[in-house]
Fold this sequence. Notes:
heterodimer; A: alpha+beta; seven-stranded mixed beta sheet; elongated; B: alpha/beta; Rossmann fold; six-stranded mixed beta sheet; four-stranded antiparallel beta sheet; about 25% strand; globular
Amino acid sequence: MNxxxxxxxxxxxxxxxxxxxxxxxxxxxxxxxxxxxxxxxEMIIQGTENRKAENMVEDGQFSVFLPLSDDDIANLTTDGTxxxxxxxxxxxxxxxxxLRLFKSRERINLIQLDEGAxxxxxxxxxxxxxxxxxxDLHIGxxxxxxxxxxxxxxxxxxxxxxxxxxxxxxxxVERSVFGLLFVTAEQYDAIKESGTVNAEEYTYAYRLGNTTxxxxxxxxxxIKIEPEQIENKYFREMVDETLQERRxxxxxxxxxxxxxxxxxxxxxxxxxxxxxxxxAADALFAQYLAQANQALxxxxxxxxxxxxxxxxxxxxxxxxxxxxxELKSSLDELAExxxxxxxxxxxxxxxxxxxAALADGxxxxxxxTDDLLDEVFKLDIxxxxxxxxxxxxxxxxxxxGDVIMDKNAGLVAGIIILALFAYVISVFVVHQIEQxxxxxxxxxxxxxxxxxxxxxxxxxxTLVAFFAALLGTALGFLVGVKSQAQDSYAYFSLPVFDVxxxxxxxIYALILPPLISAVVxxxxxxxxxxxxxxxxxxNEQSAGSYRQFSLKTKRFPLLFAIRQLVRESRSAIxxxxxxxxxxxxxxxxxxxxxxxxxxxRDTVNDTRYEYQYLYKYPEKTPPQGGEAAYIETLSTDCxxxxxxxxxxxxxxxxxxxxxxxxxxxxxxxxxxxxxxRFGYQIGDRVIFSDFAADTDYSFTVTDIxxxxxGFTIFMDIDSMRELFGQxxxxxxTIYSDKALDIDEGRxxxxxxxxxxxxxxxxxxxxxxxxxxxxxxxxTVIFCVVMYLMMGVMIDRAASGISLIKIFGYRPKEIRALYxxxxxxxxxxxxxxxxxxxxxxxxxxxxxxxxxxxxxMKLAFPWYLYAIIFTAVILVYFIINRLLIGKxxxxxxxxxxxxxx
Amino acid sequence: MYLQVKDxxxxxxxxxxxxxxxxxxxxxxERGQMCVIQGTSGSGKSTLLNCIGGLDTMDSxxxxxxxxxIFGLKPAALSDYRRDNxxxxxxxxxxxxxxxxxxxxxxxxxxxxxxxxxxELLETLGLTEHQNKFPAQLSGGQQQRTAIARALIKNPxxxxxxxxxxxxxxxxxxxxxxxxxxxxAKYGTTMLIVTHNNSIKNMVHxxxxxxxxxxxxxxxxxxxxxxxxxxxx
Lengths: 900, 233
C-alpha cells in the first residue's frame, strides 16, 4: 500500500507541478533573500571581529597639542599598553579632494592590502580602496596630492577608517572627495618639513595593556605642556595674547609700586627737614618777641607767645598807639607763619607715613597679584585634546554596526515569510485532501493507516520546502551574500571578507522551512484525516463545515460572492497575510527611499549658508561678511549607539537659521530630527552628554526648529558661552554666503554647501539597490501568493463553476460570482494592509537607522499611497486575467466526475 | 418532435484506448413527455444525456431541441442553449454546500428570463421550512428536492435527470418521482430520465433501452403507472 502511496506522490507532483513550482520558487526566493541579508551581515560582523586581531585594531585613540616625549610614552606603556603615533597631514589633490597622509602603520591599525605592497621608497604610497575605486586608480598609477606625486604600490584599507570620513561629525562617506594615503616615514617627514601643508594632527592609537581606557586617559591628562613649547603660530598667538594681558597687568602693578615707593621716599625726605623748619619758625618768632620786649622794657611789660595778643590789646586800647598796633600785627603774622610751619610739618609727616604704608600695600598687592595671575592666566596646559575609545569611534567597525539591524530584520522577516509560506502550503494541502476525500476514505477502508496518509500528505510539501531551502540557501551563500555585501563594500572601506557559514543560519535556512512545513501540515492534515472512512468516502459535509449566517441582500451576485469569500476564508486570509507581508516589504523599501530623499532635499534646503568655517584657533572678531556662531558637540544614546548632537550657539538675528533660542544656560531649541527620532516635545527636559568630560548637560526644550540636518540643538550664543565657560564674544564657527579670506591654518575645516549637497545625495545613491531589491521582492511575493491563493480558490470552486456552467452561466457572470468577490478582498485588504503595514514599519524603522544621526521623515505623499493601492489592484486584475483561462478550462462535465 | 436525436456517435481515446460509446443512436421525444433511458453500465445512456445536455460534444449525428440543432455549437452558444432550455437533476444533487436551500435555487433563478415564483415552488416541493438550511443540514430527499427546485425555477422546457433516485431510499425515491410526475403535469415539462431502476419505466410516456451504444428498444407505455403505485423502487 505504501508503494501505491509513493506512486501517488509522483502523480501528485506531476498534476500539481505548476503549483509546487510556484511554491518552490517562492521558498527559494524567500530563503535566498534571508540567507543573503543575514549571511552578508554575519560575514561583515564576523569579518570585522576577526580583523580586530589580524589588523591589531586600536582600543582607542587620543590627540594631543604636542607630540608625546619618549618619557611620556614610556610612562604610559609601563603596564603593557601599546601606543603608536598615527599623525596625519591633509593633502589637497588636483580634483579638490583631500587625501589624509599617514606613515605606514607598524603595530596598530595595520593596513590590509587588497592588492600590491606597502610603500618602501619615496613617492610610493598605498591608497585607500574606496578613493581608488572612486577615481579608478590602480597599482602603478600616480596620484598627486599636496603637490607631490605618489606612485601607487598598494590598494587597501585600515580598520580605524572602516567608515572613511574626514571628521567625526561627517554624516556620510564621500569616496570621491576623501581618502587615505600611506607612505614611508621618511616621505611623510619630508612632506611635513617642506612647509607646504598646514597643521599636522598629533593623534596616537593605543591598545590597552593591563589597564583601562579611563586610567590611561587620566595618565595622559596629567601630562602638561608649557605654552612656549607650542610651535603652531595660531596657538602661539592665542597664548601670546593671553600672556600679554598678564604682562599688562603685571606692568601696571609694577608701575604703581614704583610710584608709591618714589612718593614715600620723597615724603620721607621732605619730613626730614620738618624740625629745622619748626625750629626756624620758633626762632624767628622768639627773636621778634625779644625785640618787642626790648622796646617795651620801659613799661615793664614782658610779652610771651602766650600773652602777647592780650597784653598788646590792652595797651593799644589804653594808648591808641599805632606802633603797638603794628607790633601786634607783625607778631600775629609771625605766630600764624609758625603755626603754618607746624601744620605743614605735621602734614608731611603724616603723608610720609601714609606713603610708606601705600608702598608696603602695593608691594603686598604685587605679591598677591602674581598668585592671582598664575591662577587666572593658567598656562599650565593639558596636552590632551581629545580621547576617543574604539567603541565610541564611528569610523571603527562602522560596517558591522550598520548591518546588525539588517541581520535582525532579515531573521525576523524570514520567520514571517516562512510562516506565510507554511500557511500557503497548508491551504494547498487542505484543498488537496478535500479534493481527495473519497480516495482517502477508500484507502482507509482498504487498511491504510492514518499515519501513512499523514506521512504521504506531509511528504510533498516538506520535500518541496526542503529542496527549495537547499537551493535558496545554496544560492544565498554562493551568490547572494557577496551580492548583498556589495552595498557595504561600496560604502565602507573594507577588505574582501570570506563568506562564512554560521551554523545557526544554516540550520535556520535548511531545517526551519521543512520543519515548519511539516508541523503546520501535520496539524492541519491530522484534523482533516480524523473523520471515518465512510464519511470521507461519502464526501460528507458536516453541518458545521461552513459558517452559517443569514444574508439579507437581494442581490444574488453579491450574496454569492460573500458566501464564496467566507467559504474561502482560509485562502483569503493567506492572500491578505501575503499582501500585508509583501506590502510591508515594499513599504520598508519605500520608507528607505522616502527618508533618504527627504534627507537629501531637506539638507540642501536647510543649508542656507554657502560656507561654514570651523575654527581650530578662533579670531578675536568675526571676519567681514561672516556670521559668528559657537559650536560644541555632545552625544546621545540611540539603542546602544552613541550619536553626535551638535550644539549651535547663535545670535537671535542669525540669518542662516530660523531657530530663536531664548537666553538661559539650560534652554535650547531642538531640531526636527531629534523630535522625529526621540519624540521630544516643547517643555521636555533633554539630556546630552560630553563623554570626554564625563559631563551631562540638561536642557529645557523651548521650541522646535524645522532645521533637519543631523541632531542639532540651538542655544543663545551668550548663554552657551556662559555654559561652556568661554569668554564674551567667543566663537568658533563662521557662516557666510560667500567665500571669506580666512587663513587656513586657523581652521579645522571649510564646508561648502556644494559639499553638503553632494554628501546628502550619497544616501539616495547607496540605498537605491536595497530599495529596488525590497520593492521587487515584495512585489514578487505579493504576485505569487495572490496568484496561488486565487488559483486555489478557483480550484476549490471548480465543481461549483462546472455546475453553473451546466446551468448556462456565461463567462462574465461566472467571473462576477467567483473572481470579482476577490476584488473586494484585495481592495479592502489593501485599504487595511497599506496603512497598517506603514504604521508597523514606521514603528520599527528607527531601529534600522539607530546608528545614523539624521532626520527620519517617513511620511508618504498621498500619491505614493495611491500608487501602492493602484499597483495592488493592477496586480489583482493581471492575475484575474490570467485566472480567467483557468476558469474557462473548467469543463461543465467536471461536476459529473467530482462533486462537493 | 421536440427532441430529435439522429445517428449520434461519440467516442473517447485514441489507438488502443479508443472506445466508441455511442455508435449511431437515433430517437426522439415529444414536448411534455416523460421518458426513461435504461441500460447497463457502460451502455452509453449517460453519454447520450450529456450530449443532449450540451455537456459533451458528439463526433457526428444531429440533436435538435425544439427545432434547433446543437451539434457544432460553440461553447458560448451551448451555454445559452442550456440556459434557455434545460434543467438538470443529478444523482448526487450537486448542491453548493455553502449556500442555503433558497440560495441554491437562486443560482438558476438569477439567470432565468421568466423564473417561477420562488415561494410557490418552495411550497410545492415542501421546502419552505427548510429554505434557510444548508445542504449538510438536509436529508438526501430534501437535498434532491432542492436540486429539483433549482432545476425547475427557470421553468425549463427540457429536464434532464441523471439517476435522480440513485442515492435515495425507496420511500424518498417514490416521493421524488411523485414530485416529478406532478411537475410534468403542472408545468408540462419534458423530462428525460436516465436510470437503472426498472420500475420507473412504468410511470413515463416513453422508454428507450440502450445497449452497447445503440438503441436496442424504444416504446411508448400505453398505460402509465402513477409513481405512488410503483413497486420495487
